[in-house]
Amino acid sequence: MTVTGRGSDADPSTTLSEGYRKREESITLSSEPAGVDETHELLTLNIGPHHPATHGVLRLITTLEGEVVRDIKPIIGYVHTGIEKTAEDKAYWKVIPVVERMDYLSYYFNAMAFCGAVETLLGLEIPPRAQYLRVIHLELNRINSHLLWLGTSALDLGAISMFWYCFREREKILDLFEMSSGQRFHTRYIQVGGVMEDIPAGFEANVRKFLKDMPNRADQYADLLEKNQIVIERLRGTGIVDRETMIKLGVTGPLLRATGEPWDLRKAHPYSSYDHFDFKIPVGTVGDNYDRYRVRHAEFYESVKIIEQALDGLPEGPHITPDRKVALPPRHELATSMEALIHHFKLVTEGFRVPPGEAYYPIEGPRGELGCFVRADGSAKPARVHMRDPSFVNLQALAPMVRDGYIADLIATLAMLDPILGGIDR
Amino acid sequence: MEIKRETLADTSSLRVRQHQARDLLRGDMGDEELERYVEERVLTTTVEKAVGWAQGNSIYPLTFGLACCAIEMMAIVGARMDVARFGWEAMRASPRQADLIILSGRVSIKMAPVIRRLWDQMLEPKWAISMGACCSSMGVFNNYALVPADKFMPIDVHVPGCPPRPESLMHGILKLRDKIQGHSVEGWRERYAATGTEELLPDAADLGTANVNVFKPGDTAGA
Could you tell me if B70 lies within 8 Å of chain A, comparing CB atoms? Predict the structure, then answer.
C-alpha cells in the first residue's frame, strides 16, 4: 500500500485526506470472487463455536476483505444430541419429552407437531377444549420465545437493559407454565389426544392479568428501541434479501414475512382451531433487519389477541380424548374399574399402537414452519421421527444476508435470524 | 421503643488516636504500647482466608451456553434471581478472563474437545459447574451422541434438573462459594493434586512455521 505523505508542492492537509479517501474508495461493496484480484487481501476468520454473539454453539467461517464479509460458512453439529434416533427407541407417548428438547425455546410447538402427526395417524378427534388450551399455551410460548430473542438480540446491539426487561416478562410466562403443568421448561403439557391436565383454578385470571400488561410492555420496548438512533442505524437497510430468494431457500416464519410474503400456517393451513380466531399477520416491506424486528414485535400484540379470544371462548368439556386406548384413565377410575386398570397397565408398560403409515404435520412455530414427520410400522414405537426445524432451513439464508456487508452487520443479522442451535442440530 | 443514641467520640480522644497513628508510622512507638495498639486496631486473619473470601465474592463466569440450561443460566442474571447479589454477574467472553465455566446443557462428542480447550485456556484459580442432567449423566437422552462432563474435565459442583430451576443453580453457586472460601470437604483438586492446569502457549518467537496465519514483517508486501 502506498502512503500518500506530505507532498512538497501541495497543502499537507488536503493530500492526507485525499489519500484517505482513495484508500476508502478501494473497498468496494460489490461481489467479487475470492482471490482473483491480487490487490485485495482476504482474511479467513473463525467465529465460534464459543462466541457470545452466536446464540448457542454455532461456528462461522467468514472470509473477510477488510471489514467486508465476502463469504460465510456456518458449521453446525456442536449440540447434536441424537434425538431423532432416540425417539425411535421409545414408545409414542415417551417420545414427547425427548422431542420437546429439540428447539428448547419452543417446547410446546415441538410437542404439538409430534402429537399432531401421531393423532393424524391414529385418526383421533381432539376435544375443542383441548384445542383451545393448546392454542393458549402455544401463543404464550410464542411470546416467550420472541421475548428471549428480543432480549438477547438487543444485547448484541449493545442495548443491555432490554435483556432485563424481556426477562422480567419471561418469568411471568414461565410462572404461568409452572402453574398449569408444574415445570418452567419442557412441560410435556401437550399430550397425544389433548392436554395433560385441565388448567387449575386461577390460571385464567393470571393469564388475563399478564395479557393486560403485555401490550403496554411491548409499547415500552418499541419506545426504547425504535427511538434510538443507534438501533435504527444498525437495523435499517442491513441484511436485505428479497422475497424470491427467501422462498427458493425454503425460509419461513418472520424472516419470510419481513419480505412482504404473508405466509403463516395458522392462516394458510389452520390447525388446532386457529380458524376460530381473528388475528392479523404482520408483514414487512423491504426485508431488512428492521422489518424482521418489526414483524416479531408486532406478533406480541397478535398473540395477545389470540389468547384473549381463546380464553373468552374456552369451551366446556373434556381436556383429553375419551379414547382409553390412547389416553390414561383418570386416577379415580383406577380404584373402581377393572377395565380402567387394564388400560392403564397397557399404556404404561407398552404404550398404544399406531397403524402403519406416514404423516407430516406442519405448524407455525416462532421461527417458521415446524413440521414433524412420523412413520409408523404398527408397533408401539415410531419407525422414524423427523423434524423439519425452521432454524435449520433459515440458517441457509445467512450467507445471502450477510455477503458484501460489514462484519458488524453480521452480528446484527445473525441476531435477527434467531437460530436455535438445539433445533438445528437435534 | 427506646432508641439508644451513642455520643460521638469527643475530639480529644480523636486527637490522641491521631497522635498514636503518627507515632506508629514514624516508628516512635514503644514495644508495649505498640503491642496494645496492634491488638486494638488490627483484625488478624490468614492470607488464604482473606483471599478466599474475596475470590468467593467476585467470580467472573464465562459467557458460555450450550442448550436449554443456558436459558435458565441467563435467568439468574435477570432481575428475579439477580446473581449480582453475590458478585458473580460479570460474565466474561474470553476464557482467559474467566474464573468459572458453567456447562449449561448437553455436551456432544463434537463439542467436548472444544470445552476442554476452553477449560485449559482458563487461568488458575478456576472452577467448573456442571448444570443439568445431560452434562452430568447424559440425562434423558443417554445415547451415542453425548458425553458426560466428568469424562473429560473435573467438575466442582453438579446441579441436577432438566433443566434446573434458577434457584437450583443459585444453590449450586452458593455451594461453590463455600468451597472457594474454604469451608468444604476435600475436592478433586486435593485428591489429584490438580493445580496449575492451564494451557501454556509456546514462546512467541517460535511462532511462524506452525501457524499459517502469522506473518513476519515483509511477508505481506505484495498483497
Answer: yes
Is B78 in Cβ contact with A80 (below 8 Å)? no
Helices (H), A101-159: 107-122, 128-156
- Taken in order of first residue, the domains within chain B and their CATH numbers are 19-56 (no CATH), 60-192 (3.40.50.12280)
Residue A308 contacts by C-beta under 8 Å, 6 or more apart in sequence? A208, A211
Question: ipTM score here?
Answer: 0.81
Task: For chain B, say whether A186 makes contact (Cβ under 8 Å).
Answer: yes
Look at residues A48, A55, A81, A59 and name the one whose alpha carbon lies nearest to residue A387.
A81
Backbone angles phi, psi at B216, to 5 degrees: -85, 160
pLDDT in tens, chain B (223 residues): 676 666 655 666 778 778 888 888 887 877 887 887 777 777 667 777 888 888 889 999 998 888 889 999 989 988 888 888 888 888 888 889 999 999 998 999 989 989 998 998 898 888 999 999 989 888 888 888 999 988 888 888 899 988 899 999 999 998 888 888 876 555 666 666 666 666 555 555 555 454 444 455 565 554 4
How far does A40 lie from chain B, in Å, by closest CA?
A: 7
**Are A297 and A217 contacting, i.e. CB atoms less than 8 angstroms apart?**
no
| Structural domain boundaries, residue A374 | 83-425
Q: How far apart are CA B135 and CA B163, in angstroms?
A: 11
In A138-157, the residues whose Cβ lies within 8 Å of chain B are: 148, 152
The helix (H) or strand (E) run that includes residue A364 is strand A357-365
